[in-house]
Amino acid sequence: MRLVFDAEACVGHGRCYALAPELFDADDQGHCVVLVEVVDAAQADRARQAVNNCPEEAIRLDP
Amino acid sequence: MDPSAAVYPEQRAANPYLPEVAADPLPFYERLRRECPIANMEGLDEGTHIISRYEDVKFALKHPEIFSSDLVAVDIGQDRPLIPLQVDPPEHAKYRRVMDPQLGPSVIGHLEDEMRKLANELIDGFAGRGAVDFHAEFSVPYPCTVFLQLTGLPLDQLDQFLTWKDNIIRPEVDFGDIEAATRVRHETGKAMYSYFEGVIDDRLANPGDDIITRFVQAEIDGQTMSREEILDICYLFILGGLDTVTSTLDCSIAYLAQHADRQRQLADDPSLVPHAVEELLRLHTPVMQVLRVVVTEHEMHGVTMRPGDTVMVMLGSADTDVDEFGHTADDYDLQREVNRHLAFGGGPHRCLGSHLARLELKVALEELHRRLPAYAVAEGATLDYSPGIREIASLPLVFDPKAVA
Ligand code: HEM
Ligand code: SF4
Q1: Could you say which DSSP state residue B32 is in?
Q2: What span, in angstroms and rounded, lies between the C-alpha atoms of B312 and B302?
């Protein structure tokens, strides 16, 4: 599965890297940096959690 | 009074500014969303619109070209638009580009040990008594001390800063006396500008390791900001930095004090605290609403909003909308899978202090539940919530002083 990130939509709530720091990091502005683009089944739950908690819907998990 | 009675569907109007609503806003929000998704502010002419459904609130926050933040019309004693709150994109982004890194997660993370120490000192201050006014003895001093350390402003002037922000946010005048409120705000605004003139002079002459120095030195397109720009930033900082975490702590601890099982849950498993912080922010949304002004004609639910109209964007109502949060929208649920709450706003104006605020709240809830035994609201106490930003004037708690860790 692939994490798709929309940098235009991200405003730096920081929910993603707080919930799944192994998949996301913050840049100096607090906006999201995707660390792992292709996630395996073991990582999918956490990826989904991040997706579900981003108020801007800036991250998507594609099959 | 039943808070939902402050919605008047026949007149398509509502009044969120009542203390009864601030004390218990959920029934008000629910009726507003269901019966009156776009309401006028009661008593005012057409042209003030209250937006309450999650989808609509989110839309408003994300469309500054329709719902502008350039609120020159909202007089809170300021001479010019507050930066970055009252500046629209694309201008807005250039300020956030230099301000965000100063309050980003990595910078803020370094403050954690200091916060923990401070939280414990404050708890030590009342632990032996078994009774505390939590508002006065924790909710106020804890975030304010952190904020003053961050800004390098003198701690012994805290009372002055608190008076200023209260004069602006909730001036003590007779209910509805708008003229008196405006007068207080203007006097306060003048005092604040002149005080910060001095601070800026000082930071130019004696740069320090504080955030105001970094704003003074920051460059936008190779140029430092003007004195007026720095002043407009400082003005907002006092308002944003000194009030909101206090209100969040008040609302959160008042709620937990009335739910002993939920206190125990956090004491037993501190790893739940970050989820609790988000859920408390969502359920109690301390900043009930933010304001916008219409700049492009727009229709919502059959109501036409015209340029110049004021819009109250009800964050608290969005955050408890069943259409977004499901049938458990009004419950405290630490297992919630989808929590896109908007307690810090959303879109370009997402709260600049959210990383700081979240860390302060996490550390506070961890230390309070590590050290305090079961606590409850003192018998006979009434909790007065202030409308707009839900601070509780006094929050008396009791606990067994012998059981403090
Ligand atoms: C739990 C605590 C807090 C809450 C609930 C909160 C809430 C908010 C909300 C809802 C907004 C959006 C305003 C709008 O869209 O018009 C905002 C903006 C802002 N907040 Fe906070 N805030 C908190 C803490 C802080 C702190 C601690 C600071 C400063 C250190 C701060 C500084 C700001 C600033 C500067 C803005 C303007 C951002 C912009 O317009 O780009 N806030 N806050
Ligand atoms: S949660 Fe969303 S908006 Fe926030 S940093 Fe992550 S991607 Fe960006």
Answers
A1: H
A2: 17
Which distant-in-sequence residues (6+ apart) come within 8 Å of B44 by Cβ?
none
Q: What is the pLDDT of residues B104-136, one digit of tens each?
A: 999 999 999 999 999 999 999 999 999 999 999
**B401 pLDDT higher than 90:** yes
In this prediction, residue B74 carries a pLDDT of 66
Per-residue pLDDT tens over the stretch B359-392: 999 999 999 999 999 999 999 999 999 999 999 9
By CB atoms closer than 10 A (0-12, 13-18, 19+), residue B61 is buried
Residues paired with residue B311 on neighbouring β-strands, in sequence order: B49, B292
Which of ligand 2's atoms lies nearest the C-alpha of A24? Answer: 6
Domains, chain A, with CATH or none: 2-62 (3.30.70.20)
Q: Which of residues 4-63 of A touch B (CB under 8 A)?
A: 11-15, 17-18, 26, 28-30, 49, 52-57
Look up the pTM and report it: 0.96
Q: How far is B64 from chain A (nearest CA, A)?
A: 14
Phi, psi dihedrals of residue A2, rounded to the nearest 5°:
-120, 135
- Ligand lying closest to the C-alpha of residue B355: 1
Omega prior to B90 cis, within 30 of 0: yes
C-alpha B360 chain-centroid distance:
13
**Spatial separation of the C-alpha atoms in residues B82 and B84, rounded to whole Å:** 6
Percentage of residues in chain B having pLDDT higher than 90: 86
Q: Which long-range contacts (CB under 8 A, 24 or more apart) does B148-157 make?
A: B149/B111, B149/B114, B150/B111, B150/B210, B150/B211, B150/B241, B150/B356, B151/B210, B151/B211, B151/B212, B151/B237, B151/B241, B152/B203, B152/B208, B152/B209, B152/B210, B152/B211, B152/B212, B152/B213, B153/B199, B153/B212
Task: Dump strand ranges (E) for B286-362.
Answer: 289-294, 298-300, 303-305, 310-314
The closest-lying atom of ligand 1 relative to the alpha carbon of residue B345 is 10
Amino acid at B269: D
In this structure, which ligand is nearest to the CA of B390?
Answer: 1
Are the Cβ atoms of B358 and A14 closer than 8 angstroms?
yes
Structure tokens at B200: 């800026």
State which residue of chain B sits closest to A52, comparing Cα positions.
B338
Q: Which residue of A has its CA nearest to B94?
A: A29
Q: What share of chain A is helix, strand, coil (3-state, %, to 5)?
A: 30, 25, 50
Q: What angle do CA A15, A17, A22 make, to 5 degrees?
A: 145
Instruction: Compare all CA atoms of chain B with the CA of A47 and give the residue at the minimum distance.
Output: B337
* Ligand 1 contact via B346 beta carbon (within 6 Å): no
CA B378 to chain centre: 26
